[in-house]
Amino acid sequence: MNSIRGRLIAILIGTTGLVWLLAAAWIYLSTQAQVEHVLDARLTEAARMVNSLLTDHRIELAMAEGENGETAAPIFDMGQPYERQLSCQIWSLDGQLVGRSSGAPDTRLTDATQGFSEATIAGETWRVYTVENPRLGVRVMVGDSLHVRDRLVGDVIKGLLLPATIVLPVLAGMIWLSVRRGLAPLSEMAGTLSSRDANDLRPLPSAGMPAEVAPAVNALNGLFRRVDEARERERNFTAFAAHELKTPLAGLKTQAQIALASGDGAVQANALRQIATGVDRTARLARQLLDLASLETGDGPARSAREDISVAIGTAIAEMKPLAAARHIVIDVEHVGEQPCLEVETHRISPALRNLLENAVNHSPEGARVRCRIHQNGGTVLVSVEDEGPGVTETELPRLTEKFFRGRNKSTTGSGLGLAIARTAVEQAGGELRLANRTPQGFIATLVLPV
């Protein structure tokens, strides 16, 4: 059953019915025990009463056999609401029937001489109490049918279950109405969501919501907020990407037109060099856009490859060597103190290292030196990339990690995404990115990674 309402109704009705049946069984057993105790006490009192009446000669004994050989006739009547509820026999000690109550069987109720006993007469079981009177030479036997007892207990249970057959349907209806009313907030929330437009990400109203529904509403509102933030990032990403790609693509088209229109070999060669440069810049921008999109959307591998930080730095430097060689720039690696042992997720740290080194190479003058320092400081590992470029102004420093922001001393091949990618990557790895100017000139970017 997939319906919460149906499950709740079934559980409540089933539990109520089970409790009712258990109560009826308990009442049946308890009533049976109490009835047997009371009826046994009544048998004892009745037998003793008849014996007392005989002793006081308030009841005259008749002969067991009349002159015509007839059995003794009933000498008293034990009136009762149930037919043959109590039967009394008086037997002489030598085995002759002296008297009996109306409705009592002619056959001897029991062979016991004293106390309680049970006997079966004509297929019917009797519970009998016997009192012996040696003075008068008789035995008084008072008994009742166990069938009558069972019928008495059954009537009590019927009196209990009969109202239940009327009350249970009413109770089931009340349970159904209560469950429906209790789940009404969920139905209202479902109706609100189904009538919404796909672009409507406003939070659901949570005021007055039941405590059981409030967590679901809060979770949905959190989801709406995250979806809205993701859509806003996508819109900004698309707008920025379109803007940044438009300029190099327009330049490529212009240079291609110049190369086609000019018959001068020198002009064509220059145009082709400009096209190659534009293609490199566009490819770099596309790569950075893909890196940023992958980091922001969390599309990295579920179980990312991990490697030592020193290996990751070496790989990033190897990727930058062609660019550094073209500008006659040397990249040095320095370990301050003991070499740290730290495994990092490749898909996060590699883009950060690559973009920091690329920025340092692009902003350094030809023939300069870029230094990559690794230092473990307590519970953190610091990876610093230092260049000998012009640095940035103090007013530009806080904005360097904004997407597509390029300062006054921007390079011709930059796109303004490198530091944004580095910050996003290192924050996802649980660290932070620190930026500062060097003295007397240059710039330093530091990745602070937890051990």
Characterize the structure shown.
- This protein has 451 residues and is of the alpha+beta class.
- The strands form three sheets. The chain has a six-stranded mixed sheet. A five-stranded mixed sheet has the order 8-10-11-13-12.
- The radius of gyration is 52 Å and the shape is rod-shaped.
List the helices and strands and how they pair.
Elements: H1 4-55, E1 74-76, E2 87-92, E3 97-101, E4 115-121, E5 124-133, E6 138-145, H2 146-182, H3 184-194, H4 214-261, H5 265-297, E7 306-308, H6 309-326, E8 330-336, E9 343-345, H7 346-363, E10 369-377, E11 380-387, H8 418-428, E12 432-437, E13 443-450
Parallel strand pairs: 1-3, 8-10
Antiparallel strand pairs: 2-3, 2-6, 4-5, 5-6, 7-9, 10-11, 11-13, 12-13
Helix pairs in contact: 1-2, 4-5, 5-8, 6-7, 7-8
Fraction of helical residues: 40-55%
Largest sheet: number of strands, sense, barrel closure: 6 strands, mixed
How would the global form be characterised?
rod-shaped
Q: How do the helices and strands follow one another from N- to C-terminus?
A: HEEEEEEHHHHEHEEHEEHEE
Gyration radius, rounded: 52 Å
Distance between the termini: 51 Å
| Total number of helices | 8
- Percent of residues in beta strands? 15-25%
Count every beta strand, where a strand is a DSSP E run of 2 or more residues.
13
Uncertain runs with pLDDT below 50, 5 residues or more?
A: 63-84
Return the structural class.
alpha+beta
If strands are numbered along the chain, what order do they take across the biggest sheet? 1-3-2-6-5-4
Q: Looking at the chains present, what oligomeric state does this protein adopt?
A: single chain
Give the rounded overall mean pLDDT.
79
